Amino acid sequence: MTKEQMKEKLGELLTDHRYSHSLGVVETAVKMAEIFGANVEKTEIAALLHDCAKQIPHTTQLEMCKEYGIPLDEVKEKELGLLHAELGAYMAERDFGITDTEILDAIRYHTLGRERMTTMEKILYLADIVEPNRKEFEGLAELRQLCFKDLDRALLYGFGLTISHTNRRGHILHNQTIDAEKYIREKLRKEENILDQENAFEKAALAVKVLDKKKAADVKLLKVSDLTILADYFIICSAGSSTQVKALADNVEDEFAKEGIHPIAKEGKGGNEWMLLDYGDVIIHIFYKEMREFYGLDKLWNDAQSIDINAITAE
Ligand SMILES: [Fe+2]
Ligand SMILES: [Fe+2]
């Protein structure tokens, strides 16, 4: 079936309002597919057909689902508005000749979502909410912006809106949506954590470079994130005099300041025998060399993973 034939058939199945909505979803979904690298052609078809079952009366939809063996559950049997998505996938295959599972899944999951959604599924789920014909509601403008910038964040935001909307209207929330929301939230949290870790390492590497360049002795970089919540990295080094302790600390501070990073805390102990610069996830200890052993920090953090700094200083 050509796209034109599909449109013609769809026009017969849907009211003008629903048909315009579908074209609005196509417009938005195609733009998003181009941005996020989904197959544009397939996304367009999924968007066009996503609501093909929507106009069928709810009770008939329920009967059809039973007849075609579409899996039902307690919530779906009560919230009949949910059925058109899976029924739509069935009809897209039977009546529109779509066999591509990516397209069918995008249609199937466009109202409930699911864990591990494909890019196309995410796009259709969101385009359905933000297409240009949608009436204004709280959060729509923000979601629209996010939809063209950050797909996963948009999805999380979209789920949030759906969940509060469902609750407000007294509908029952389906577990599949709750799980989908949890999944994407956790995915984003993990990614953020990795980013934080990478940032911390970059900071630590910068400090190591400065200290090495300014002739700090015996520079040690320890990864302590598994041992303490104090920081991700400790740097310990020695200086030949208390004057050098101070000079090293000043140098690190200056270089970090150039990057717009300032210490949360700065401490000098024993008349510059030990200076500590606390950059949150990276803490730098600069010792007058006679004092390093006395304070015993190296021993204290013996279990920490020691990172070879040669690769950093050689850069
Ligand atoms: Fe729908
Ligand atoms: Fe829709």
Continuous helix count: 15
The biggest sheet, with number of strands, parallel, antiparallel or mixed sense and barrel status, is: 6 strands, mixed
CATH C-level category of the largest domain: Mainly Alpha
Helix content: 55-70%
Uncertain spans, ≥5 residues at pLDDT below 50? none
Strand content: 5-15%
- What is the CATH architecture descriptor of the largest domain? Orthogonal Bundle
Question: What is the fourth-level CATH superfamily of the largest domain?
Answer: Hypothetical protein af1432
Q: Overall mean pLDDT score?
A: 94
Strand arrangement within the widest β-sheet reads 3-4-5-2-1-6
**Helix vs. strand class:** alpha+beta
Question: What is CATH's topology name of the largest domain?
Answer: Hypothetical protein af1432
* Global shape: elongated
Number of strands: 6
Query: Which hetero compounds are present in the coordinates?
Result: fe (ii) ion
Give me the strand/helix succession.
Answer: HHHHHHHHHHHEEHEEEHHEH
Radius of gyration from CA coordinates: 29 Å
Structure overview:
The chain is α+β, with helices and mostly antiparallel strands and 315 residues long. It has helices at 3-13, 16-36, 40-49, 58-68, 74-78, 83-96, 101-108, 119-130, 140-147, 151-168, 175-213, 242-258, 289-295, 297-300, 310-313, and strands spanning 217-223, 233-239, 265-269, 274-278, 282-288, 305-307. It has two domains: 3-173, Hypothetical protein af1432 (Orthogonal Bundle); 198-313, Beta Polymerase, domain 2 (2-Layer Sandwich). The protein has 15 helices and six strands. A six-stranded mixed β-sheet has the order 3-4-5-2-1-6. Strand 4 (274-278) and strand 5 (282-288) form a beta hairpin. The radius of gyration is 29 Å and the shape is elongated. The model has no long low-confidence stretch (mean pLDDT 94). One fe (ii) ion binds next to helix 6. One fe (ii) ion binds at residues 50-51, 54, 84-85, 110-111, 128.
